[in-house]
Structure formats: C-alpha cells, structure tokens
Amino acid sequence: MMSHLELTASQYKSCLDMLVKVLCSITGLQPGTLSTYGDYGNRIIARLNNVKKTKHNLTVGRIDWLIEEIEKTKPWLESVIKIRDTYTHYPTEIHFGFEWDKEVGGVRVPHSDLDGKFHPLNFVWAS
Length: 127
Hints:
Layout: H1 2-27, H2 42-53, H3 62-89, E1 96-101, E2 106-114, E3 117-120, H4 121-126
Antiparallel strand pairs: 1-2, 2-3
C-alpha cells in the first residue's frame, strides 16, 4: 500500500510540473522561467500577475481565471504535495499505519503524521 501511495503522490506532483510547462506556452512566458509547480503554486500566481501587467494576447480575464483556479485547488494540492515531499525527502518523519480507535471501537483509517499535523488519508484523497 505504501509504495502505491508514494507513486500516486509523486505522479500528482509530476503532472503539476508538466502542466507548468504547458502553462508557459499558453501564457507566453519565456520557456524555462517556470519549471516546476513550486511553492504550492505561489510562484505561478506571481508570474501570472506579472503577465497581467504586460502586453499579452490572452482573452481579458483569462489570467484572473487561471489564478482563481490555482487558488481554489491549493489546499488540496498542498496536502498531497506535503505528503509526497515528506515521504520522499524525509521518510523517517512520516508514519502511516492503522491503529485502534477506542471511541469508535474499531480500526482507525490509515493516517499520516505530517509536520506535527494528523491527516486521515481518506480525507486527503477525498478533498
């Protein structure tokens, strides 16, 4: 299960990094100015705000729409990226597993202890 989780989270991040390259072409950003979906999307938003200030061939409001879409997905993507980054770069600091929930009288869903915050995995993936 853990290898599947790591692969899924890594694929999310890889897809985001590739979408940034496509976004550069669409918005007319110089190739290579953005190479990854870094800083949880904040770098992309900053670049798009700079594009708004310059002459561009995009439909009016299109850049604002892109920024709005990035902002809407940031909380969910940030959770996935943090799990991926921690699992990939700091595997000893993240703990996955099952444990007994005394209040419910059953097994608690798989969870992660990430940066001192407790995240049920079903919540992360459903969000």
